[in-house]
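HUMAN: You are asked to prepare a plain-text protein record giving the amino acid sequence and the backbone structure tokens, both parts labelled.

ASSISTANT:
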Amino acid sequence: MDSILIILLGILLRLGIPIGLTALAVWFLKRLDARWQAEASRPVRVKPLSPPCWEQKSCPEAKRAVCIAYQEPDIPCWQLFRKKDGSLREGCLACSIFRTAPIPTTT
């Protein structure tokens, strides 16, 4: 009877420890991924463009009133117009404002 308990304990340890470590690694990686996803979805705040894009493109007042870039002047317009998957629109990639913007730096 003791030998059966020892065998069962050995099997439990042999399987339980790797399964427990794997579950712990999955939990940690899911938390890390959630944090990275949250950081990636936040727009980067940089020094506002001077002059702002709506002045550079001579947008009329009617268009400015509904433009999200005009309503959020602290965020570059291409950050606000990103697609749901995070990629930039083709129009932003070809835009002279995007191409000549300074590269943001972290301090």
